[in-house]
């Protein structure tokens, strides 16, 4: 058996954290992801199954919702991304598939994305420099898909002073570079 | 150019990619007797109006929805934006009502 070691999206053994001025950028590696796309005309059935079994209410356009330990945000019409702690829900996609059955298509997304949580009073200043999303007018619990550093990303407002950014994992280094550059310019 | 997405509100045109004439939604029936002619027309025959044009746009860096955008090709004014799925569903409902 090979001795395989898991690495983070940035290639480290442990998550990376950078503090620049009043902003802290943390690589998030402990969340599993799966997308749930309702099949034709079955959005209500998906919603019912998830509410009954894990208490999760699927959010409307541009919104996010949570029902610990799960959280979810809207990705597109009748499609949602669901997250849960990796340690307890490593097989998140299989778990969700059991719940929704044939009413939705569930796709494992954990290894497709990297996530950075950016915290600090200047988060809006930072994301204004990186994307054209209206971050300042986004309320807590809203999520938007847009571009940052030429990459397609999700911005997810977790709190007043905390925004998560999810981008393509293979471009984690470029995204991190962009975050650092923007953080330095607002520091 | 700003495209006023029916669900997400005004979004910058750099988030979208352009496909072409919105009649591409009306794909011919490949089993019909005149399928070859119908597909020839579907694929090659297009109007190229100077003025109002209905076209398909893809919100690639957003919710990845297809939109039918009515745009004036002379002034670039955007007159209306609809979800392509709604347009296709309405067309199907109209066909089955006939």
From TrEMBL, chain A:
**Matching InterPro entries, A to Z?**
TrmE/GcvT-like
Domain of life, source organism: Bacteria
Q: What is this protein called?
A: Sarcosine oxidase subunit gamma
**Species of provenance:** Ruegeria haliotis
TrEMBL record, chain B:
Pfam families cross-referenced by the UniProt entry: SoxD
Q: Per the UniProt entry, what species is this protein from, by scientific name?
A: Ruegeria haliotis
- Highest taxon of the source? Bacteria
**Name this polypeptide is given:** Sarcosine oxidase subunit delta
């Amino acid at each position: 058996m090979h001795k395989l070691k898991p690495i983070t999206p940035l290639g480290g053994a442990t998550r990376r954290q950078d503090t620049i001025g009043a902003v802290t950028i943390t690589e998030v590696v402990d969340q599993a992801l799966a997308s749930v796309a309702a099949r034709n005309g079955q959005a209500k059935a998906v919603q019912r199954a998830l509410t009954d079994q894990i208490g999760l209410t699927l959010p409307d356009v541009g919104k996010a919702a949570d029902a610990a330990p799960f959280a979810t945000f809207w990705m597109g019409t009748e499609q949602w991304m669901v997250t849960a702690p990796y340690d307890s829900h490593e097989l998140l996609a299989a778990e969700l598939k059991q719940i929704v059955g044939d009413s939705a298509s569930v796709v494992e997304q954990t290894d497709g994305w990297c996530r950075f949580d950016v915290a600090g009073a200047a988060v809006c200043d930072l994301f204004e420099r990186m994307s054209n999303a209206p971050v300042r007018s986004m309320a807590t619990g809203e999520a938007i898909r847009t571009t940052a550093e030429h990459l397609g990303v999700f911005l997810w407002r977790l709190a007043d002073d905390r925004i998560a950014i999810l981008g393509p994992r293979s471009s984690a280094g470029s995204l991190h570079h962009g975050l650092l550059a923007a953080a330095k310019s607002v520091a | 150019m700003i495209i006023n997405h029916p669900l997400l509100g005004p979004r910058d045109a750099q988030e979208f990619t352009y496909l072409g004439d919105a009649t591409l939604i009306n794909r011919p029936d490949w089993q019909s007797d005149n399928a070859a002619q119908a597909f020839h027309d579907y694929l090659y025959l297009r109007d190229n109006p100077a003025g109002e044009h209905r076209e398909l746009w893809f919100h690639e860096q957003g919710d990845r929805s297809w939109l039918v955008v009515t745009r004036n090709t002379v002034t670039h004014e955007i007159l209306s934006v609809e979800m392509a799925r709604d347009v296709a569903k309405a067309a199907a409902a109209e066909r089955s009502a006939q």
